[in-house]
């Protein structure tokens, strides 16, 4: 079944908030894919510019992630790298499927329990 374009464009909801320790907190929900990759990248960049690093990405409400969204995370981890050399983003709340995708993409080091 083909999903109408309008519905695909709304496959994720992405909000930016602030972590209690002052870091930017990006909270995507739904599917992270090519359709909304630009919005996801902009949310991470916004959180990095305003909050302390690393940016926290809470994946607890993400049901699917594709290579485009993984590329956004990998880019952000390098682009917003902390002064001490640690990655500029950390991933929290990933379900088993999302965590497995990060592992296969060799980005498992960004996952935090």
Helix vs. strand class: alpha/beta
CATH classification class: Alpha Beta
Ranges with pLDDT <50 over ≥5 residues? 1-10
CATH superfamily caption: STAS domain
String of helices and strands: HEEHEEHEHE
What percent of residues are in strands? Answer: 25-35%
Number of domains: 1
- Write down the overall mean pLDDT: 87
The radius of gyration computed from the alpha-carbon positions, rounded to a whole number of angstroms, is: 13 Å
Helix content: 25-40%
Shape: globular
Oligomer: single chain
In CATH, the architecture is 2-Layer Sandwich
Termini separation comes to 36 Å
Number of strands: 6
| Count of discrete alpha- or pi-helical segments spanning 4 or more residues | 4
Characterize the biggest β-sheet: 6 strands, mixed
Per CATH, what is the topology? Answer: Transcription Regulator spoIIAA
Question: What can you see in these coordinates?
Answer:
This protein has 113 residues and is of the alpha/beta class. The chain has one domain: Transcription Regulator spoIIAA. The protein is built from 4 helices and 6 strands. It has helices spanning 5-9, 37-50, 67-79, 96-104; strands spanning 12-18, 23-32, 52-58, 61-65, 89-92, 111-112. Strands 1, 2, 3, 4, 5 and 6 form a 6-stranded mixed beta sheet that branches. Helix 4 links the parallel strand 5 (89-92) and strand 6 (111-112). The longest helix is centred in the middle third of the chain and has 14 residues, at 37-50. The protein starts with a helix and ends with a strand.
